[in-house]
Amino acid sequence: MAAETVPVLAGVMREQRRPLVLWGLALTAVSTLYIAIYPTMGIDEMASMVDNLPEALINALNYDEIGTAAGYISSTVYGLLGPALLLIFAIATGTRLVAGQEEDGTLELELTAPVSRTRVLLERVAALWCNVAVLVAVVAVVTIVLAAVLDLDVTVGNVLAASTGLLLLVLGFGTVGLAAGAITGRRAIGLGVAAGLAVLAFMLNAIAPTVEAEWMTIVSPFSWFLDGRPLATGFDLSRLALLATVPVLAVAAAVVGFRRRDLMV
Amino acid sequence: MAVIRTEGLVKDYGKVRALAGVDLDVAEGEIFGFVGPNGAGKTTTIRVLLDLLRPTAGRAEVFGVTPVQGGPSLRARIGYLPGELAMSGRRTAGDLLRHLASLRGGAGGNRIGALSERFGLDLNRPIRSLSKGNKQKVGVVQAFMHGPELLILDEPTSGLDPLLQRECLDLMREARDGGATVFMSSHVLGEIEDVAGRVAIIRDGVIVDVDDVGALRSRAGQVVELRFSGRVDIDEFRNLPGVRDVTLDGSTMRCMLHGEPDALLKAAARHRVLAWSAHERELEDLFIDFYRGPSDRRQPEEVTFDGR
Ligand SMILES: Nc1ncnc2c1ncn2[C@@H]1O[C@H](COP(=O)(O)OP(=O)(O)O)[C@@H](O)[C@H]1O
Ligand SMILES: [Mg+2]
């Protein structure tokens, strides 16, 4: 039973059931809305719309490929709204699961139970990851179903590739938030660090083509995720591996920091 | 073997020194009271014992190992009730308690029902709808449910009504009778004098006294009041052995007496004494002495006697 082998994880998942369902519904609604209106937009309409936009904005939103289904879904659900909503969820949840609950005192009984600090931290990270994975899966399922129903030119394999990238991107910033909170014991610091880095990474990826600065795409996880155009081209393992380093390194830092400091101060 | 031992335990929060060398020795099977005013360092000491805080200097041991070395297996032997118990969420009290049991590998899960019944705790109510007293009951239940060898209770009776306070003290006695050691803090001595064997008094991060409750009580002294037929000189009484805090109100003299009354009686006998009274001070008053410290002696009139 999960309650015996991973009691911390099981406890958090239980508490998260309700927010998870609500976020799942919100993501379903938003994804459905955006994908469903794609066929109603004629190619010409889309092209003229894009022509009227300043080039910087076209670059920023990847609208240069908006005429294809993959490009459209990439610019809307996978490249903009999905990451935005999922990052809000992941950063808010990640910073709350350790620093937030430590600050409000609700973690005290768990930390004084016969469970090591490392285990508390890792199971809470695992809980965050499970939550994010469920929500990314919701987006993926909605996309796959609608692509089939609306007969869009997007393969299941490519949706899975993009979803994996999206998952790793969101886990990265969510785990950075959890880690910054776990290292400092302050949720506000976790929120600030993770949200700040996420916005910075998004901006760098968005303005890189306009200012023609390649280093921006080299350092931005958003570029690692989107540059390979996974919805059009499928899995790119080297880019996914790069994305995966962020959550892994964040967890390592969190464990080290959380084990050595005073808790509940 | 000492169940809890600290030696020169120092803990700083940044620049604030919360503990300035705490020495404690709690023996197996006793109920040990840890008493001191708010801010004295009780919670800090307790959090070191549970490895939430790491000592700045000095040493703390529980069952012969430091809290860091002991880790989870040490905490499995401890039942802990936090001083400020924070609980929230939609889940029910029963859910939370079962979750806490699962963190102990299931230990104590089978006693949740009986203990809750004893305290009149409704397990089906959501945590966030519980009053402070009911949350405290959840805290008490989770601390005792797995029958730990050591109970560390930070102000356990706060927030409980008198009936449940008694129930909680009974639970401690039962645990002790079953061989457990109880380490409990309080900022009110009267609350634990019935149950504790030994008491340590902490003030400003230092243990200022450790003794049996009985010895403390006898050391608390007496308040003596003498009414004379005429005026007397306060200086006649001020420097007598065992006499403190002398005040004169017209022809009535009041003082605090520790030890033999001989010198005081002989001095008084030089005058005509119309009336006299002497009564034992409550432990609480002794405790107030410690609060005041040597530099801040107020007049005895200000000492309250609320008959605790
Ligand atoms: N997190 C903290 N940061 C800074 N100072 C603290 C903190 N917690 C407690 N203190 C200070 O340490 C001292 C001891 O506090 P505490 O151990 O909570 O006392 P008690 O439990 O006896 O009321 C007090 O002066 C308090 O202000
Ligand atoms: Mg306290």
Structure, explained:
The complex is a heterodimer of chains A (265) and B (308). Helices cover 81% and strands 0% of the residues of chain A. Chain A has 13 helices and no strands. Chain A has helices at 2-5, 7-36, 43-51, 55-60, 69-103, 108-111, 117-149, 156-184, 187-211, 214-219, 221-226, 230-233, 237-260. Chain B has helices at 42-49, 67-75, 93-103, 112-119, 132-144, 162-177, 189-192, 213-219, 235-238, 262-268, 283-292; strands spanning 2-13, 16-27, 31-35, 57-62, 78-81, 150-154, 181-186, 198-203, 206-212, 222-228, 243-249, 252-257, 273-280. In chain B, strands 5-6-7-3-8-9 form a six-stranded mixed sheet, with helices on both faces. Chain B has a four-stranded antiparallel sheet with strand order 11-12-10-13, with no helix packed on it. A three-stranded antiparallel sheet of chain B has the order 2-1-4, with helices on one face. The longest helix of chain B has 16 residues, at 162-177. The model of chain B is unreliable at 295-308 (pLDDT under 50). At the A-B interface, helix 2 and helix 6 of A face helix 2 and helix 3 of B. Residues 42-43, 83, 154 of chain B line the site of magnesium ion.
